[in-house]
Amino acid sequence: MKQTLKLSLAITTLALLLSGCDSNNAQDKELIKSLEAKVQALEKQLEQAEQPEATATTDTDTKALEDKILSLEKQLAANKASAEQPGGTLEKVKKQGYIQCGVSTGLPGFSNPNENGEWEGLDVEFCQAVAAATIGDKTKVKYIPLTTKERFTALQSGEVDLLVRNTTWTLHRDTALGVNFAGVNYYDGQGFMVNKSLGVSSATELDGKSVCVQSGTTTELNLADYFKFREMKYTPVVFDTEEKTVGGFKEGRCDVMTTDQSALYAHRLGMEEPDSVVVLPELISKEPLGPAVRKDDDQWFNIVKWTLYTMLHAEDLGVSSISVDDMKNSNDPDIRRLIGLDGPKGKGLGLNDDWSFQVIKQVGNYSESFERTIGMSSPLKVRRDVNALWRDGGIQYAPPIR
Ligand SMILES: N[C@@H](CCC(=O)N[C@@H](CS)C(=O)NCC(=O)O)C(=O)O
Prior knowledge:
Layout: H1 2-18, H2 26-48, H3 59-83, H4 89-96, E1 99-103, E2 112-113, E3 119-120, H5 122-134, E4 141-145, H6 151-156, E5 162-163, H7 171-176, E6 179-181, E7 186-188, E8 190-195, E9 209-214, H8 218-229, E10 234-239, H9 242-250, E11 256-260, H10 261-269, E12 277-279, E13 287-289, E14 292-294, H11 298-316, H12 333-338, H13 355-362, H14 366-373
Parallel strand pairs: 1-4, 1-5, 9-10, 9-11
Antiparallel strand pairs: 2-3, 6-14, 7-13, 8-11, 8-12
Helix pairs in contact: 1-2, 1-3, 5-11, 5-13
Bound molecules: glutathione.
Glutathione is lined by residues 104-107, 147-148, 166-168, 214, 217-219, 241-242, 259-260, 263, 287, 289.
Pfam families: SBP_bac_3
Domain Solute-binding protein family 3/N-terminal: 98-316
Organism: Photobacterium alginatilyticum
């Protein structure tokens, strides 16, 4: 009963969020009102429902939820696509003098404000790289913190020019939301974190447990799949922000927390006693995280794509923020094309010929950014593993610059 109510509530809330309504339009006003009323009624019913037994999510529940989400997201994409002028992000960004970059509301290592209120992290540095490429100054970024639920709407509506917010590239998101993923800046996977006192050392031992999870994420869907496929039961405890999800886990409102594994490591470090908490070894999904842009703007799409490739190539060719000035004297044809001395340069992207030089000089190559933000020079100490370059045993690889 409570499970069904929760599903209805989730669907209605999603409908409300995704409606993309114009609040001045009478028809939309009505829709907003009715959805708000439905959310309120469902919340009330949910409060009144008796405490649940740990229940397995049924096939019909999950299927209905997925179908509904699919159709709502389609509607949203159609609404927004018709409202958007195709193309022009580069021009807009140059005119306004900065890029609006959608980041998370706070995820250490990826996008998080430091004690001085300055945003930092792997995703933040990627925003800076795009600013260096397009405006010539990595500081020209306005960071817009977005929750998981807000992120796609913010991109579609033009509130942000670029979304770099630990967002997983999926078929559905790529095809139904009016957005394009421009690559993968971090290959992640979904994991579980528990208190050591729970006495669990593997995800296969989580039958019957309660799990804190953030709504509007691939995490929520993978969680349902994982338990259903193994005929295990669980009680989802759902929150709409990261802060609340972690808070829920800390307060003991659930036995387990699940999200992208990199984030679990970050949150573990933020616990009062990190050693009392353990990240379980299993990864239950693939979460390739990457920057996304609005569709129908190939120029901007290419700029974002090739900014990432530039950082990867620079690492591959041993060109760093420190050495890039000297590289202007290099005879290596790959290096000369990388920094825009020869080859296609900036023309095809509508940028200055030194755009890639500025990315490397001001932000650095992929390795520099990785180590500084989440790698060995950071508190997180994440190893490169699958995120290493192809020649070092990882899968990071960029197409040729020529
Ligand atoms: N990668 C998954 C999960 C994203 C996600 O849940 N992110 C959370 C946890 S890592 C988050 O960004 N929280 C920060 C926030 O809500 O601002 C997705 O794209 O759906």
